[in-house]
Specification:
With 94 residues, the chain is α+β, with helices and mostly antiparallel strands. It has one domain (3-93). The chain has four helices and four strands; from the N terminus they run ββαβαβαα. It has helices at 21-34, 52-60, 74-83, 86-93; strands at residues 3-5, 8-10, 42-45, 64-67. The strands form two sheets. A two-stranded antiparallel ribbon has the order 1-2. A two-stranded parallel ribbon has the order 3-4. β3 (42-45), α2 and β4 form a beta-alpha-beta unit. The longest helix is centred in the first third of the chain and has 14 residues, at 21-34.
């Protein structure tokens, strides 16, 4: 797993054989938080970040997030499509 801060790369973490992103992302976030590296930053993360527990952890670490979503998360995907529909954009943009 690679973590980047602006143009500076955080040391790479080795992931165990029977481990996946879902178990590693919280560990990385907690380590970065304990190093005071997450306050007032924006975290971008792939669809794995759409897990409620990961999103909540990012918020609890005083960070903001930009999460990627996929069509296999149909309810969330549909809600985002509605938010960015032309009718709603008109309401937001005046």
């Amino acid at each position: 797993m690679n973590v980047y801060f602006f143009y500076c790369r955080y040391p790479q973490m080795r992931v165990g054989v029977k481990t996946n992103e879902f178990t590693v992302v919280p560990l990385v976030l907690k380590e970065l938080y304990s190093s005071n590296l997450l306050e007032n930053v924006i975290i971008t993360i792939e669809a794995i970040g759409c897990q409620k527990s990961i999103a909540e952890l990012i918020i609890n670490c005083s960070a903001e997030y930009l999460l990627g979503i996929k069509g296999n998360q149909s309810e969330l995907h549909d809600q985002v499509k509605i938010i960015f529909s032309s009718d709603l954009k008109q309401v937001w943009l005046g």
